[in-house]
Write a structure and sequence with these properties.
Metal Binding Protein, Guanine Nucleotide Exchange Factor, Chain A, single chain, 3 helices, alpha+beta
Length: about 170
């Protein structure tokens, strides 16, 4: 066995065990969003959030979980309106900025002014920028630099983190 083969196996083994550990911690709620440590205009106890949101939304908004891709009915929402935080109803995205990214999650190229906060997310060994609601701290998804013009941004958002209000 060559040193290169041994190093590759060691790297893959460590990477795999790190991903499994991270996934288990996230699933158990140990790795909740760092946004939860900050103070927000809207706050509730974890039990109140769970009661208000239900299990699936609670996992996403309060524990930085994610939904399976291509499962959100909001992927097919094309009416004029506003996408708001499912936790506190703060308007986050205008329908005019929504686009089909092909990723399986609702995507937007711009957020409404003063709607979001961000923080660095290094879960799973990948550097990403997490987005959360500036009013309640709910985890929404992540922002990437591979979106369309005019911003070049892709706000990749969990559909369960949002509600839609047609106008």
């Amino acid at each position: 066995m060559t040193d290169q083969t041994l190093n590759r196996r060691l790297f893959l083994g460590l990477t795999g065990s790190g991903l499994v550990t991270g996934a288990l911690a996230l699933a158990s709620g140990v790795m909740s969003s760092s946004a939860s440590a900050a103070s927000y205009e809207v706050s509730h106890t974890p039990a109140d959030w769970r009661r208000r949101l239900g299990a699936a939304r609670f996992n996403i908004l309060r524990n930085a979980g994610t939904e399976a891709p291509f499962t959100s009915p909001l992927n097919k929402e094309h009416r004029k309106g506003v996408f708001a935080c499912a936790g506190c109803a703060l308007p986050l995205f205008a329908s005019t900025t929504k686009f089909d990214s092909g990723t399986g999650w609702p995507s937007f190229y711009a957020a409404l002014p003063n709607a979001l906060r961000t923080n660095s997310d290094r879960a799973f060994g990948i550097a990403r920028t997490e987005e959360h609601c500036r009013r309640c701290g709910g985890h929404l998804g992540h922002i990437f630099d591979d979106g369309p013009r005019p911003t070049g941004k892709r706000h990749c958002i969990n559909g369960l983190a949002l509600t839609f209000r047609p106008v």
